[in-house]
Structures are given as C-alpha cells and as structure tokens.
Amino acid sequence: MVRCGRMAFVVVLMLAGSAEAALRLGGLFSDHMVVQRGIAVPVWGWAEPGAKVIVEFAGRAADGQAGSDGRWRVTLAAMAAGGPFELVVRCGEEEVRVGDVLVGEVWIGSGQSNMAWPVWASANASEEAAAADWPRIRLYTVPQVPSAEPADDVKGAWALCTPETVPHFSAVLYYFGRELHRELDVPVGLINSSWGGTNAETWTPKEGFASDPALRPTYEQLRLDPKDAAAGRKVYMKALADWEEATDRSDTGNVGFEQGWAKPNLETGDWVAVTAPGQWQYYGDEWNFNGVVWFRREVTIPESWAGRELTLSLGAVDDFDTTYFNGERVGATGSETTSYWVAPREYRVPGRLVRPGRAVVAVRAFDHYGGGGFSGGEMKLVPVEGEEAAIDLTGTWLCKVERKLEPKRFDLGKPMDAGVPGAVNSPVSLYNGMIHPLAPYAIRGAIWYQGESNAGQGRYYTALMSGLIGGWRKVWGQGDFAFGVVQLANFQSRAAEPGESGWARLREAQLKILDDVANAGLAVAIDIGDAEDIHPKNKQEVGRRLGLWARAKVYGEEVAYSGPIYRSMEVRDGKVYLRFDHVDGGLAVRGEKLAGFAIAGPDQRFVWAEAAIEGDRVAVWSDQVSKPAAVRYGWADNPECNLYNEAGLPASPFRTDAW
C-alpha cells in the first residue's frame, strides 16, 4: 500500500499552498459546508495513486483507495440534521480537516440571469440584506467557467449567510432557502451555479441530447472529435437541410412558384401593400407566424439602362430568400451562408433581362423562427458600371402569404449547431464547467430559472429540459431528485388583441415538464413580472412559491403549492366550461371580473372573451363566437391574468387548442 506524505506538520504547510500536496478534497468540501441529511453522502478527492484514504465525520468512518488517476471516493452513511461537526480525511500521515460542517438540506440553483440576479438588485434589498443573519444557511457560488470537456473540480468556498455575504448571492435561491430554513428548522446549503443570457443547451450534458429525436442531431455532432470542425459542420448542415425540407423551404413544388407570383404580368388585386424594410410580424396580429411570404415591387427602368448588368440590393432578409427579376431567378441565400438572417442580399441582374420601362422585382421570403421579411439595410437597384443614381427600393411593396407553417412543427425545434466547444452557449459547455464538477455531492434537489434565451421553442424545450434533467440525475446517481422550474414571468408590452407569443409557447413547454418529468415542480410567475424589465425585482415571491412546492412535494407538508392548472373543457350552449386542478379552497378572481381569456370557433380566430367563475368551473364566451372550439388564457408575452385559487396562487397560462 502506498503511504501518503511524510509528517503531519509538513502536510499543513503543503495543503496551505504547495502544489506538491498529495492529499486534497474536491472543491465543494470546505469549512462551513452543509452535508445532505437522510441519504448516503459521497466524499471525494485526490491522493497518490493506490493510497488508502480514511474519512471520519460525525461518528462515522469510511475508507477507500485512490485509483490510478489519484482520484478516490468514499461514501458515508446517512445521518440526521445537526452539527457543527468536523470532517477529517487521512492518508498515511497527511491529514485534511474541514470545520464547522452542518447536516441539513442542500439545493442547487441554476439557469440564466433571473437565477443569477443578486439580492442587492431585488426588491427591498437593503432591508433584506440587513435581516439576513442566518448562520445555519450556507452559501456557495460556482465560478463562471465554461469548458469543452467535463471538469473534475470546482474552485469556490462556502460562506455563512450574513448581511455582508448575502447581497451578492442569487436572490431566488436565497429566498427559496430561507423559506425552507424557516419552515423546516434545519441547516440549509445553497449552491448557485448560474450565468446570465445562457440557453438551456449549454447546461445540458451530452447524453441528454440523445434522449429525443428533436435533439439527436446535436448529439451526433457532439459525438465527433471537437477538433474536427469540418466533420461537425457537415453533420449539422445535413440535419438542418432535412429540417428545412420538412418545413417546405424548397422553391420547387410551392404554390407561389407554380402560379407565377414572380412573373411581371401577374394580377395582384388580392396582394397587400406594406412598407419595406420591416418584418411582417409588425404588420398586425394576423401576421404573427412563421412561413413563406412573397413580396413584389414595380420599378421603371430608364432607357439608358437597357441591356446593362444591374446590382440588386435588398438588405437583410430574415431568414432565407429566393429573388427574381422580371420572372427569372437572380439569386438566393440560405443556411449555407453564415448569419443568413442578417446577411445583406446583393444580386447581379444580367443585362439580357434589363429592358426599358416597367420591371418587377419579386422576393420569396421563408422565415422559420422569430421575425421574417426585410429586416433592414440598403435596398436599391443600380447599374454595375456607371454613375447613375440608384432606384430606391424602400417604401411600398406588395405582399402575399404563400404558406403559414404549423406552429407545432416548429415547436419540435430547429437543429442546433454545436458551435465552438467550450464557448458560452455552445451545447454542454456550462454543464461541463459548472455542473459536472459538482456531482455526486449529495443534494435534495435543484431549482431552475431559465427560458428567456429559448423563448418560442415550444415542445422542443420540453424535450431539451427532459434531457437536461435526466442527464443531471444520471451523473448524480441519486435517482429522480426533485427539480423545480420557474415559469417565465410576464414581460414586454401588453397586446391589444389576442395573437401568438413565443413566451407563451415557452411557458406551455415549462408546464408540460410536469407531465413528462418525474418529481418536477413549477412555480408560476405570470403575475409578478415587469413589462419594462426582463429581471423583475420581486424575487421573494418566486422563492416563496418554489418553497411551497418543495415543502409539499419534497417534504410532505400539507400546504397549497400550485395555482389552478387547466384540466378539461366542455362546450355547452355557446359557452366553454373549464375545470382545473389545484383549486385549493375554490377559484378566485383578483379584480372586478376575470381577464386574459380569449375564445375561438373552428376557424381558430381568437377574440377577447367574457369569463366568470361558476362554482368550481370557469365559463368563457363571446357574442362574436357562436360555436366555440378553443380557449386560451394568458396567451401573450405580458398578459392580463387574474385567476387564482383561494390560497392566493395564480393559474398557469394555457390553451385548449393544441400541444
């Protein structure tokens, strides 16, 4: 058996700063740490390969042997809440002592900026900080370090929760932990691993992308050697091409091409006049869709331009375009071009097409995500050679919708490029650097506040989160530990009329996690957002609602933990009657009458609806809809919502018409 070190007094100096020390603990094991109660507790670190390591804690002991890479791991038996204790690790004559260790509840908080948002920027920050004297709450912040490969350790330190330490800690995680500490009366350890502006993909382990067909293309790319960028790009482009074909991006076989919408002599009486540049989603609520729209602009070609080659500039077209001059294709830009949605279009018009008098420029624009159409930049027509003034193409164009793509098709998600390995927001990068090195530290569960960077992705996001949660649980090896999700809060301007919403689709996807993932919870925040600030300050209520879920579903308390969740609908006598789970004492309205409901007939044209609570149901109707078929509630970026239960918890937004 290999012996560690030489003399104990020498080891103290070595562990204080020398790289020669053989025995060390993982970065989560430091003074003031909290150990999870009630389950087996792994302890790990590094020593000389083959060395025996002994761990002692709270009257328990376990030993193990370092492997060929020097890593060792032992498991301590479960214990009840208590402390403080001392953790002692010995290897021969080397020794490491970790003091002021408590046993209680340990939770991880992760996500993007609304999880990272500190206490000092939350509501009533100065009062909250001054009152944050909770010596049995301990705080740990994971350094923001992305990585191309799974990191094996993390550098940080536990701190007592004090008025001096709490201001810079995650507000949501702190208020959540405070709720648990107050109600359970046990020590609480909180590990903040979050980063503003990040997508869910970057927090997902590689294996998580193998869990669903919508994620599989990214997984196939991640399996390749990250140094082989060409091979990875080939895999991505193939997946993207398949996806685009499935969504009918092609020029062949489409209605507009077959009916000659590019031809100069087309009858355009049913076309709509619009102003360019400008994305079509801003034309009105009925234009809030992804799909294909054709644009036409008539120009008058001067006699002096006859037979001369022209430059046609259109600015950026979001996302792809095929462009015609007098009925003939003169250019196209697709996904093979980097940043195709913002790439300026500049095409050459051959001289043989250039004749004096009337001419027509036609553009077929295909949009698969977000905004679509002319998004800005120089729009003009001018001879390649010469000094003539250009024909300005900004202003009035005619347009016509060729096809609206079914939203559920895009909910399945566009394939994501694996990007630059180790870069922030590249898939797996923050999982590798900020989550993987935490495992298998014993925890009770995790809470998650993220989604702004994935807004609009619908059921793809549900699949992605299933992969993320399943991947985390697999690496921890603790089974289906609890995972609480914050649903996106209300944000941005309030819509005048019912319409589509990327944020509503993301909230729906977050709600669906409850059905798809075991031991998951949801904290609805639709009533505590800020129209002008993507970072609402009321983080206290977010933490409290997460705490209610944990108290009820994780710790078994008899408390209401959810607002009303839509269950079923019935149509009778021109009204829709809705039933809900989690009514908890009955349905309630805050205000004079219910708001936020929209109704539609079989044509799926939604209008604002009247709504009223009738016993344990909500009745919804409109004089404009004689045969109702579907109802939506809170279906907007910033909806007006005031349906609650008697426990004071808000109903989740929902729709009855699709998933």
Q: Can you describe this structure in just a few lines?
A:
The protein has 659 residues and is an alpha+beta fold. 19% of the residues lie in helices and 32% in strands.
What is the fold's blueprint, element by element?
Elements: H1 8-17, E1 24-25, E2 34-36, E3 41-46, E4 52-57, E5 60-65, E6 71-76, E7 82-91, E8 94-111, H2 113-116, H3 125-130, E9 134-141, E10 159-161, H4 171-184, E11 188-194, H5 216-222, H6 229-246, H7 255-258, E12 272-276, E13 278-279, E14 291-301, E15 310-318, E16 320-325, E17 328-333, E18 344-349, E19 357-367, E20 373-383, E21 391-392, E22 395-404, H8 407-411, H9 429-435, E23 445-449, H10 459-476, E24 482-486, H11 502-516, E25 520-523, H12 539-554, E26 565-572, E27 575-581, E28 587-589, E29 597-600, E30 607-608, E31 610-614, E32 617-621, E33 630-633, E34 643-645, E35 654-655
Helix pairs in contact: 4-12, 5-6, 10-11
What are its keywords?
32% strand, Rossmann fold, single chain, 35 strands, 659 residues, globular, eleven-stranded mixed beta sheet, 12 helices, Jelly Rolls, alpha+beta, 3 domains
Give a structural overview:
There is one protein chain. By secondary structure, the protein is an alpha+beta fold. The protein folds into three domains: 103-247 and 411-561, SGNH hydrolase (Rossmann fold, 3-Layer(aba) Sandwich), CATH 3.40.50.1110; 255-404, Sandwich (Jelly Rolls); 565-655. 19% of the residues lie in helices and 32% in strands. The chain has twelve helices and 35 strands. The strands form seven sheets. Strands 2, 4, 5, 7, 8, 9, 10, 11, 23, 24 and 25 form an eleven-stranded mixed β-sheet that branches. It has a six-stranded antiparallel β-sheet with strand order 12-22-14-19-16-17, with no helix packed on it. Helix 10 packs across helix 11. The chain starts with 7 loop residues before the first helix and ends with a strand. Mean pLDDT is 90; it is low at 5-19, 249-253 and 407-412.
